[in-house]
Design goal:
Length: about 575
């Protein structure tokens, strides 16, 4: 049969647990013949054909028209998981990102074979029914989650299983009722923002979000290709200069589902030399700073990195980081085929994970790094963990990074087990004011060192680390800042008696400005010098004594007193 103009037929092959694009034809019969021929060779598990055609409005539509597996590979089972932390108490909570992440991992084989996200499954009745009818996949999945969550709570798994089945029934009924709604907006015609506004005008907030996801799923389910789904969602994020607020949050959730599919990260990044390189690139991607070297302007990974850099895609970022965390905890080598390069590969991942902003992924990532390092040690148990904490910190050359890593680790389950060890290590790093020289770079200007120390202080002081650890380390860093100010004669340099008083006072007040010095002791030290200036007899006259123009004198004084007010002087 001759292909319709503008229509192509993509043959995709199923390999292990994901689909890969193999060939593209202009003729459907040729595509089917090719698929039959290649599956008969016995080297692939299955194939499918996706028709891609262009609507009159220029939008591409993808429809799966054929799927075939070898008889031995038709069965789909749940994937083994060892944690299910998303303990839902209401059916509505199953739509949360943590629950969807568990679904993505548990139903890995099904998700990859059908190319369907958890959001689509729970909001499209036909997709949900297809899953419910697939062997005993749902009973196995419910049983596994119930067992894990009962084990963690000490409760009976049967009661938890019954509770989860109740949620499944509620989700199914809600999706069934939604499938009958013919008045839902069509995102392909209106765009997502206007569709959301139309729903907001007539639905409660909870129903508005649900039906917005239903409408979104109706379009998304037509795309049986992960990258096509990602392209579609990316365009929605960019819609009308960029989605904001609730509409962006909803699209972000579905994008997170796509990134949670096992094969998507690999398809995005392309061939990687080893796992360490892949993990470093994924961390960069999550932070919106993926290296553009050796990538084209059309590269999807770069486009996603840009979206993550400029949009609040928190769930997408969470899923990418979770993938890195789980890979670190796995037994897969960081540098395949060369065990001697494992530690060097670990150092690259560690260096990429720790930055002036803290540890990418927080406590969970810090714990995963410790668990990965334990593979290098002979000792196990508490002794091995203590050694791993010490060794990993020592592999970070900058003491500021050591503080950030230990601070993040203190907020993990492993960190709670070793709270005293972590506090002891932090005290050894920060308690001695004479050790301030380790925290600064003498090659850097004093202003840069002050900013970096202040940034570290703020990071500790505003963290979720447990007390008294947080308060103690913040106090130590405050003292270190004061020691640096004294040792470097910061105030004396700024308040040089040989300079004009106005210049001296302005430099000091700039140190007191919001965001420059944030630690109590250091700020009080500088503020006292400002107060001493203000108390001088005839301060205002001396402040402008080198200026002849009265109007300029008045302006300079107004500007100075405004700075005083901004700095908190009253």
């Amino acid at each position: 049969m001759a292909g319709i103009r503008g229509t192509s037929y993509e043959v995709q092959l199923y390999q292990q647990d994901h689909w890969v694009i193999d060939s593209r034809f202009d003729d459907e019969a040729e595509a089917r013949a090719y698929g039959k021929r290649i599956i008969s060779g016995g080297k692939i598990e299955g194939f499918r054909i996706v028709r891609d055609w262009m609507r009159p409005d220029g939008r591409h539509v993808e429809t799966q028209i054929c799927e075939e597996f070898r008889a031995t590979s038709n069965a789909i089972t749940i994937s083994p998981i060892d944690e299910a932390p998303a303990v839902c108490r209401r059916a509505e909570q199953t739509y949360n990102v943590e629950s969807r992440m568990v679904m993505n991992r548990l139903l890995r084989g099904y998700v990859e074979r059908m190319v369907v996200t958890p959001t689509e499954i729970m909001h499209n009745y036909q997709e949900l029914k297809r899953l419910l009818d697939k062997d005993n996949l749902v009973p196995m999945a419910v049983g596994r989650v119930a067992a894990l969550q009962a084990e963690g709570s000490g409760k009976d798994s049967r009661s938890r299983r019954d509770e989860l089945y109740g949620f499944v029934n509620e989700i199914t009924e809600r999706a069934r009722r939604a499938s009958a709604r013919e008045d839902l907006p069509q995102i392909g015609q209106t765009g997502f923002g206007p569709a959301f506004e139309a729903l907001a005008a007539k639905e409660t907030a909870e129903d508005r979000d649900f039906f917005a996801r239903v409408a979104l799923s109706r379009d998304l389910v037509q795309k049986r290709n992960w990258l096509a789904k990602l392209d579609f969602l990316s365009e929605l994020v960019r819609e009308d200069g960029g989605l904001k607020d609730e509409p962006l949050t909803l699209v972000d959730g579905v994008m997170a589902d796509v990134l949670g599919a096992p094969s998507v990260a690999q398809e995005l990044l392309g061939t990687q030399r080893n796992l360490a390189e892949a993990l470093c690139n994924l961390m960069d991607l999550s932070c919106g700073r993926l290296d553009a070297t050796h990538r084209t302007e059309e590269d999807r990974a770069l486009h996603l990195s840009e979206l993550l850099a400029y949009n609040a895609l928190d769930e997408t970022r969470l899923v990418i980081i979770d993938l890195v965390r789980r890979q670190l905890k796995s037994a897969q080598p960081l540098h395949r085929n060369d065990p001697s390069a494992e530690r060097e590969a670990f150092d690259r991942v560690l260096a990429r994970a720790v930055s002036p902003d803290g540890v990418v992924g927080g406590g969970g990532m810090a714990e995963a790094l410790i668990q990965r390092y334990l593979r290098f040690l002979e000792a196990g148990g508490a002794t091995g963990r203590r050694q791993a904490i010490t060794d990993v910190c020592n592999r970070l050359t900058d003491p500021k990074d050591r503080v950030r890593f230990l601070l993040a680790l203190s907020q993990s389950e492993l960190g709670q087990m070793h709270g005293e060890d972590i506090l002891g290590a932090l005290q050894a790093l920060t308690a001695d004011p004479s050790a301030v020289s380790r925290f600064v770079d003498r090659a850097q200007p004093i202003k840069n060192n002050l900013e970096q120390l202040t940034r570290l202080f703020v990071h500790v002081n505003e963290s979720q680390a447990p007390d008294p650890l947080r308060c103690q380390v913040a106090e130590n860093l405050d003292t270190l800042l004061c020691a640096y100010i004294v040792n470097s004669r910061v105030v004396e340099r700024l308040d040089n008696p040989n300079d004009i008083l106005r210049h001296r006072a302005n430099r000091l007040i700039q140190l007191c400005a919001p965001g420059t010095l944030r630690s109590r002791k250091a700020l009080d030290m500088v503020r006292q010098h400002v107060v001493n200036h203000l108390r001088q007899p005839n301060f205002e006259r001396r402040y402008v004594e080198d200026i002849v123009d009265p109007a300029m004198q008045a302006k300079l004084l107004r500007d100075f007193f405004k700075l005083l007010g901004d700095a908190g002087f009253r």
